[in-house]
Amino acid sequence: MQLKDATVLIVDDEPVLCEIKSTWLIRLVPRVLVANNGAEAMEVLAANNVDLVITDIRMPVMDGLTLLKKITDSSKPRPSVIFITGFSDFEPRDAYDLGVDAILEKPMDRGDLLQAVKRSLTPRPELWQTAMDVTPAAVLHSNFRSLATALQKQEIAFGRGGFCIAVPQGLQEGPIGILLEFHEDRSVLQGQGIVRWISVAEGLAGIELLYVAPVSREWMVKLAERNEIATFIPRSPSAVECQNGLTL
Amino acid sequence: MASPSDWPRRSAVVTGTASCLLGLAVLVAWSVHYVPLIQVSPALAPIQRITALGFLFCGLALILMSAERRRLAAMCAAPPLLIAALTILEYVFNADFGIDELLGKGYATALSPLPGRMSPVTALCFLLISSTLTTVAFRPLARYFSSILGLVGSVVLTVGTVSSVTYFIAQKDVYFWGHIARVALLARAGFLLLGAGLMAVGWKEKPHSSLLPNWLSLSAGLAVAVGVLGLWQAFVVHEESKFALLSWSLLVGGFIVALFFGLAVYLAQTTWSRNRQLLIYRMAFENSFDGFMLTSPDGAIHAANPSACRIFGRTEQEICQAGREGLIDTSDPNLQILMAERARTGKAQGELKGKRKDGTFFPMEVASVAFKDTDGEIRTSLALRDITARKHAEAELKIQTERLSLATRVASIGVWDFDVRTTSAIWDDILFEIYGIPRMVAVPYEDWARLVHPDDLPRTEASLQKTISLKSQDYVEFRIIRPDGVVRYISSAQGVVLDQQGTPIRVVGIEMDITERKRMEAQLAATARLSALGMMAGGVAHEINNPLAIIHASGSDLLDAAKEEGHVPVEVVVRAATRIRQTADRIARIVKSMRRIARDGSQDPFLSVHVSKIIEQTLEVCRAKFKDQSVTLRLPAIDSDLQIPCREVQISQVLLNLLTNALDAVVDQPGEKWVRMNVERRDESIVLSVVDSGPGVAPELKGRIMEPFFTTKEVGKGTGLGLSLSRTIAEEHGGKLEVTEDHGHTCFCLTLPVLERRKRHAA
Fold it and tell me: Cβ distance A135 to A166 under 8 Å?
């Protein structure tokens, strides 16, 4: 699926904002649909093949979170979802776990929105080919016996867009370099990403992958293309099952 | 009344009654001419009517005396006294005053030569009896009553007895000289009765302290003398001419015997009385509840009563053997002090430790006196009482008092005790500290009233009056102005103390300085308002975020267009700018509403405001929240003319509070969620109600939800002051806030009067 033939649905209870977002997106994608709340959005989704839903959270009749759950539950091929929020009424960690690709804060910047849309509609192998403009100063360097044991010991878990990992204290949200070594497998996961959330209490962090070095790209892509994984970044290693079959 | 010591009174009644009956019988006999009663035998003198009258009156007087009616008794005794006195005068002057046959024709015989006149001895006896009975009416002579009655009684009794007995033994008359009239037989019996009666009254009148009347010996002697005289006359005088000397010697001898008899009686009486007295003292000693011991100053013990034995747990013998050293804890310094005091002043009392037979000690209260006995030897006595129980009670009381006083001190509770009669109160130290005035013995009511804030004084005084008049208790809060000008808030709880008749005599109360609490309450109220605002802010933030996003986006569009294309078409600028201005206005409106509702507003003037306006402005700040939570807000069509006098901001705050609560109640509810507002005009009121689709208020919570600090929300979500403050606001508006039910849904009704009848806000 490419940007040039994608369909995007904008859900917002503020008509003026729908209009503005439409004008922005119409330059990027050929088809932009609009709905004023979650219920309307479900109707639109039923009638159209939609690739991406950009939704507000707080809306009358049906809010964004309910919409997301309904989308996940529906039998149709799952569109990507981007949240736009003006109020912290959910944990980003939960939203990524539920399968949201990106969370944008109001008032959102046009550039940010367009970049999130682009990223969401770009296939992973292509997306992960490009390194970040600025090399992150911090690097997350972890050593594991093997991927299998790490998964079994619940030290790491993967989602569509990133992974959740036990991290040392002092890690901060933002761009980060990644180097995960799996000694018995004689393999590494090397790349760049953004720390999306940190739980100091649990010693966990959720990291979205933006770039994967060629050496590890193949299996990351394989992982991402497994459709059954709706989760973008798991909320914790224990929350994810059936990853034990993953190999390097 | 019928106690053993009551016999003198009853005897007097019996003899008095008998005397009356005798007099009456004779009078009746005279009127029906029943001679056998008037003149028992032809050899005897007849009893005269006037004599019978004397017995009747004197008998009455005796009865009255025994009933303590002295004045009446004296009045009854007066006629016989007059008759007797006149009769004697008649004899002396050989005259006739016309009193003899006052009651009718008399009856003359050889032994009674003057018809109707009583014999001189009879007259003499009546004179004695009636004058005695008259005397008792004179209070100043009260201390002699007993003696006079006793002596006269004994003389009359002897005359009656001797003359009666002599007649029955020897058929002889006594007490007559020459040809003067003899005493009639019935009169002799009558004097026997009256004499006995007089003595009985005399006995009754004796001082309570003496066991026997002190006149007993004298009356005994007198009686013997009178008796001797009668007997001498009856049996000896006839031989007078032959042995004149012998006859006189017999009389004198008889008198001497009388003298000795009197003396003997005196001695016997004295001895008996003393023995009797000793016996009684002994019994008192034996039966005294307190322990009592006879001791010597050297510590020897001579006697101990059974109570002392019981207290020490020893026999009297053991006590006497043990002596002072064995009975009293000699290491107690009090012992030396008490002994020194007894040696100096002759008496001492205090507390010592007693020693029981088993060696245990017990506290006892002792009183000891030193005195000289009849031999001039110094003796001592010791009265003692086991005070273990009292000591326990005292210790318990002391602990309680300490506990109470510590509690009040620690809690800074001042205590006062107001005397209803003197209208002054006794304060404790803490109360003086609270009021900031120097200590004084009693605080007059006026002094206290001067310290109370003038605005609060009527309320506070009413509370005190209520406590007294209802004989109950009351609670009041008021302000005081200390002498240094500082205003403090006081809470007072008081209760009345009644005397045995149930009349309020005291009011006891406690007071606490609650200034700090009041300040914190005010702060909490402010906190509650801020907390409500915080909740509201959540909704408003979102409401403002959307317009901000629009403005931001419109601005960005213009900027990007300008940057990328070098110029921006006019229509694009106009559209974006219009959008920006409209959206900014929208934000301004929300901010204005929020600022308005966030004000305190409690000091605002009451103004007439349209109900529709209040509701509209309230919804401005919470509509967004309802929308966000997908809760439908149902609004009524409001009569645009409807107005109420109110503090607009406060009513908005109440409505906001009710709407927020309703929203919170339904937000987690499955299915359709709604909140409905109703506006209804009822008589002189307007009812604004908020109904929600939530699960309703549990019945057991309904009574409590308006209480301050009561909340069902989780910690951090509510202070619990919302409804309580809302109710206060409603009441300040002269209205009310109630929770009811509407088709099973919770309904909060705010009722406000259409006409202004708000309460004066008490500070």
Answer: no
Q: Do A107 and B551 touch (CB under 8 A)?
A: yes
Of the residues B585, B622, B630, B632, the best mutation for testing chain A's interface (the one with the most A CB atoms within 10 Å of its CB) is B630
Same domain membership, residue B529 and residue B476: no
Per the CB < 8 A criterion, the answer to whether A203 and A192 are in contact is no
Chains A and B: how many Cβ contacts under 8 Å? 60
CB A119 within 8 A of CB A101: yes
Q: What is the CA radius of gyration of chain A?
A: 18
List the one residue out of B39, B18, B88 whose CA is nearest residue B186.
B39
Q: Under a CB-based contact definition with an 8 Å cutoff, are residues A203 and A164 in contact? A: no
How far lies B181's CA from each of B36, B80, B176, B288, in Å? 19, 19, 7, 63
CATH number, domain containing residue B567:
3.30.565.10
Both A110 and A9 in a single domain? yes
Q: In A, which residues are within 8 Å of B627 by CB distance?
A: 13, 58-60
Q: Which two three-digit tokens encode residue B50?
A: 């006037």
Question: What are the distances in angstroms from CA B404 to CA A92, B6, B22, B473, B744?
Answer: 60, 56, 79, 20, 52
CA angle, corner B516, sides to B511 and B517, nearest 5? 75
pLDDT-flagged residues of chain B (< 70): 1-5, 106-108, 110-111, 177-179, 237-243, 528-540, 542, 598, 698-721, 756-763
Task: Give the separation between CA B647 and CA B733, rounded to whole angstroms.
Answer: 8
Classify the C-alpha dihedral B184-B186-B192-B195 as positive or negative.
negative
SS3 state at B500: coil
DSSP, res B139: G
Q: Are residues A151 and A234 in the same domain?
A: yes
Distance CA B70, CA B79 (A): 15
Compute the nearest-CA separation of A80 from chain B (Å).
Answer: 23
- Residue B571 burial (C-beta neighbours within 10 Å; 0-12, 13-18, 19+): exposed
Would the CB atoms of A59 and B628 count as touching at under 8 Å? yes
ipTM of the complex: 0.74
Among all residues of chain A, which has the CA nearest to that of B674?
A61
Q: Which pLDDT value is given to residue B367?
A: 92
Q: Which pTM value belongs to this model?
A: 0.47
Same domain, B374 and B293: yes
By residue range, what is the domain housing residue B463? 411-513
What are the residues whose beta carbons fall under 8 Å from the beta carbon of B754, sequence distance 6 or more?
Answer: B643, B644, B645, B681, B684, B685, B686
Contact A58 B542 (CB under 8 A): yes
State how beta strands B674-682 and B632-634 pair. Answer: parallel
Chain-centroid distance, C-alpha B500: 2
Give yes or no for residue A53 having a pLDDT over 90: yes
Nearest-10 Cα torsion for B566, B569, B570, B572: -110
Q: Beta strand pairing status for B443-444 and B424-427?
A: antiparallel
Q: What is the dihedral of CA A70, A76, A82, A86, to 10 degrees?
A: -20
- As for how many domains chain A has, the answer is 2
Domain containing residue A41: 3-122
User: pLDDT value at position B533?
Assistant: 64
Strands (E), B458-587: 473-481, 487-498, 504-513
C-alpha B321: how far from chain center: 50
Tokens matching residue B139: 């209070």
